[in-house]
Design a protein that fits this description.
It is built from no helices and four strands. The chain is mainly β. The chain has a single domain, classed as paralog of FGE (formylglycine-generating enzyme) (Alpha-Beta Complex), CATH 3.90.1580.10. It has a four-stranded mixed sheet with strand order 3-2-1-4, with no helix packed on it.
Length: 112
Amino acid sequence: IAQTHAVGKTKPNQFGVYDMMGNVWEWVSDWYDAAYPRGKQNNPTGVEKGDYKVVRGGSFDSSAGGLRITNRTWLHPKNKVFPKVTTYGQVMNEIYNYVGFRCAQSIVLVSK
């Protein structure tokens, strides 16, 4: 049976970051925008407000094709179930056991 695993149990990617895809979907701060792929490509931020938030990366229960950082879907922040059918046709009526979050901090590079 597929299930989540503790963070850091798999090898990090080439940037030293763990679990970027396939453990749980991750909430991001962007509001969902259906036109997102056609927009700005360098650090796109999406629309300023909306009803749905973006989750990325797929989960332990995703198909192999869904395990990629660019895989995204939307969730209503107040709902307790996935509200839609994904690109792969999977009905996602699961409890939020498939969704997590990542703590992040912006850094400022200082040149000497």
